[in-house]
């Protein structure tokens, strides 16, 4: 059994070693070959571009030299401009000297001559000749007839008569043609011929014929210069994956370049043989090394297996039971048991640490922290400024309904992690714990606190709004210096969060910005409650306007959410009491709506949301009640009577008897059902209607009291004054005076 593991190890390593080393060597050879080829191509491309750039620079320097001579040299002006000519023979002689100087100073230039339009004279370095006698006449005529697009011509043949030997010389050149003047060209031409061998010499100095092949051709594909390993190696360069073509934007000529594969891959073949020999040596050495190392390293395993056999006999039942298992099964079981114990202890330790941290933070927020605690003592010694931020999830009821427990935990953890990351970015120490389902307390501590807590809170609020499907409101408490004052910072943060009801959710509220706001106790007048309840019961749309005045009063005040809810509950209580005296159908509609109102108000978080929902529910109840009234004949009759009273209130003869005759109903029965439905008897309703109309006339007109009393249905002004004062507590004159002053 002992040798079994030895051979198993040995024959496990050797095949892997052979295969791995072979793959590595093959990949290395292929990689080296590809790398050499690609690198040679890259170097060749760079060199080709550089050579083309150098040729362009040399040709461009000739172009610029000619331009400079045209602009600055007086001899050129004398030759071309008749106004500046002094002596045509002396001027031509001076110009010929200048041409020779230019040719001698510029090795690339083979010849240079000037052509003058006005008398068709051509001036070379050696002679002054007419165009008809000039050997290069055809080129000049072609240039005049069809001006070239490029300043430089393609490769062409030019003939020239040697003035000394009178021999005709034909050679190939490329030609630069420049107009005089440079813009209009109305005086003549300057022609510069460059011999291809000069360009060939320049390229040969830069190129390496052993490793690269190159053809420099014009736009007609005629060869200007060529680089080969041997002079007789003619022919165009064949296209392959290492060939490269680059064109000049200046001349339009192209360089075709390629790598000499025989040279490049001949070198890589030598590398192949070196790598193969190295591989054979490495295989032999590696196999021997594995044999030696395996034999040496197996000795501890051999000793361990011996000890395991003794251990199995003693501990086998405790670890694996009565079943038969190998040595490594026993080791695995022991290690698994050890890991399980460690994980359990680690988890228990983390839970205790988290519980202790939460308990300490709660004690700090309550002002009951023990200074003898190690953490608290460390915080007290640092004496860093601190402040509390209270994070509250907006619309938590919707949040809890949308996400399951696991998702809620993950989202809360994400918010906590963002707090830590952003605070770390601002060099801020924080201590964050979720106090309850929708609130997390964050303790900020820093050497220079300043407004960092507000800045961090705003960044996190923006991040949550942009990246998550819910929002948060953060209340930032006042900064404190001492550990004992952290509770005060918590109280101010709690007050800031409560201001969400007034200021709105999804924001950061800093205690310093609301410290001047003191909570007010809101009081609603009984007559306001009565007016809302009665008009709502009567189906009078004016209930909404009265409620608007009440809502305006609450929004202008600094009343808390609890105070506002209490006031709205008083409104609902008053309406409920009034609705208790209506028919059973209307009671049912009201009770169902009242249940929805109570469910709606509790989870609402802001004042705006509260009033929007409250108005919506009340309007739905009001419309449902009106529809029910229209469908009930008796109820519909009562509202017809009320409408009749609203229209004919100015009739002084209006009475219960007249109404009974009008609507064919017993007056006593009409009075009783009117009070049950509307809440007041017919007489009181008529008086209230007349008084309301009289108020309007007193405010808006200058009519006398007698005139107003007649308009609202009173024959005698005394009766009107008595009814007005009984209803309002003021005489008509006093009411008009107060209205005018107000």
UniProtKB/TrEMBL annotation:
Pfam families per record: GGDEF_2, HTH_18
GO molecular function: DNA-binding transcription factor activity; sequence-specific DNA binding
Keywords of this entry: DNA-binding, Membrane, Transcription, Transcription regulation, Transmembrane, Transmembrane helix
Species in which this protein is naturally found: Paenibacillus contaminans
HTH araC/xylS-type domain ranges (all copies): 639-738
InterPro entries in the cross-refs: CdaR_GGDEF (IPR041522), GGDEF_dom (IPR000160), Homeodomain-like_sf (IPR009057), HTH_AraC (IPR018060), HTH_AraC-typ_CS (IPR018062)
Protein name: HTH araC/xylS-type domain-containing protein
GGDEF domain sequence ranges: 384-513
Record flagged with keyword Disulfide bond: no
Bilayer-spanning residue ranges: 12-32, 264-291
């Amino acid at each position: 059994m002992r040798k079994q593991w030895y051979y198993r190890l040995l024959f496990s390593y050797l095949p892997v070693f052979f295969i791995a080393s072979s793959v590595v060597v093959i990949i290395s050879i292929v990689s080296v070959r590809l790398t050499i080829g690609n690198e040679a191509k890259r170097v060749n491309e760079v060199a080709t571009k550089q050579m083309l750039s150098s040729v362009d620079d040399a040709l461009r320097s000739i172009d610029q030299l000619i331009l400079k001579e045209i602009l600055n040299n007086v001899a050129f002006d004398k030759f071309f401009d008749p106004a500046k000519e002094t002596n045509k023979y002396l001027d031509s002689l001076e110009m010929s000297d200048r041409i020779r100087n230019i040719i001698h100073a510029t090795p690339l230039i083979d010849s240079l001559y000037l052509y003058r339009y006005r008398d068709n004279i051509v001036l070379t370095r050696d002679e002054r000749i007419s165009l008809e006698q000039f050997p290069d006449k055809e080129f000049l005529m072609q240039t005049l007839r069809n001006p070239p697009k490029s300043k430089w011509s393609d490769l062409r043949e030019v003939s020239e008569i040697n003035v000394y030997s009178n021999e005709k010389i034909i050679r190939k050149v490329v030609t630069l043609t420049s107009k005089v003047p440079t813009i209009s060209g109305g005086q003549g031409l300057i022609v510069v011929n460059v011999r291809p061998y000069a360009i060939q010499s320049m390229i040969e100095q830069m190129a390496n014929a052993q490793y690269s092949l190159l053809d420099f051709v014009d736009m007609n594909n005629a060869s200007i210069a060529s680089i080969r390993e041997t002079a007789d190696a003619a022919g165009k360069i064949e296209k392959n994956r290492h060939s490269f073509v680059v064109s000049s934007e200046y001349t339009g000529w192209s360089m075709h370049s390629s790598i000499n594969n025989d040279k490049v891959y001949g070198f890589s073949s030598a590398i192949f043989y070196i790598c193969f020999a190295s591989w054979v040596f490495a295989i032999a050495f590696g196999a021997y090394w594995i044999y030696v190392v395996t034999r040496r390293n197996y000795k501890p395993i051999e000793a361990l297996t011996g000890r395991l056999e003794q251990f199995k006999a003693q501990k086998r039942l405790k670890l694996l039971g009565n079943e038969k298992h190998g040595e490594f099964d026993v080791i695995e079981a022991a290690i698994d048991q050890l890991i399980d114990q460690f994980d359990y202890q680690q988890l228990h330790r983390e839970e205790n640490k988290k519980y202790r941290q939460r308990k300490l933070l709660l004690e700090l927020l309550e002002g009951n922290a023990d200074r003898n605690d190690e953490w608290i003592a460390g915080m007290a010694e640092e004496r860093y400024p601190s402040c509390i931020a209270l994070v509250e999830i907006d619309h938590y009821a919707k949040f809890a309904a949308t996400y399951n427990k696991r998702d809620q935990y993950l989202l809360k953890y994400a918010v906590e992690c963002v707090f830590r990351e952003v605070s770390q970015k601002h060099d801020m120490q924080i201590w964050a714990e979720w106090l309850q389902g929708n609130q997390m307390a964050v303790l900020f501590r820093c050497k220079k606190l300043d407004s960092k807590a507000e800045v961090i809170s705003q960044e996190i609020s923006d991040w949550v709004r942009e990246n998550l499907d819910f929002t948060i409101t953060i209340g930032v408490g006042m900064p404190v210096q001492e550990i004992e004052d952290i509770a005060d910072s918590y109280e101010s943060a709690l007050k800031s969060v409560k201001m969400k009801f007034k200021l709105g959710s999804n924001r950061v509220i800093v205690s310093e910005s609301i410290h001047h706001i003191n909570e007010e106790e809101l009081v609603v007048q009984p007559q306001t409650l009565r007016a809302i309840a009665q008009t709502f019961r009567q189906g009078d749309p004016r209930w909404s306007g009265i409620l608007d005045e009440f809502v305006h009063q609450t929004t202008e005040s600094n009343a808390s959410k609890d105070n506002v809810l209490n006031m709205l509950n008083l409104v609902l209580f008053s309406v409920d009491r009034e609705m208790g005296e209506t028919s059973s159908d209307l009671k049912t509609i009201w009770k169902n709506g009242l249940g929805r109102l109570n469910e709606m108000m509790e989870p609402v978080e802001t004042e705006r949301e509260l009033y929007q929902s409250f108005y919506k529910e009340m309007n739905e109840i009001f419309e449902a009640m009106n529809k029910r009234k229209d469908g009930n004949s008796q109820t519909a009759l009562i509202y017809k009577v009320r409408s009749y009273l609203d229209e004919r209130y100015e009739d002084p003869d209006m009475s219960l008897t007249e109404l009974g005759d009008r609507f064919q109903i017993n007056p006593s029965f009409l009075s009783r059902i009117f009070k049950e439905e509307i809440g007041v008897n017919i007489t009181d309703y008529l008086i209230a209607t007349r008084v309301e109309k009289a108020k309007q006339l007193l405010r808006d007109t200058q009519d006398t009291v007698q005139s107003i009393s007649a308009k609202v249905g009173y024959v005698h002004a005394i009766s009107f004054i008595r009814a007005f004062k009984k209803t309002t507590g003021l005489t008509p004159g006093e009411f008009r005076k107060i209205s005018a002053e107000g």
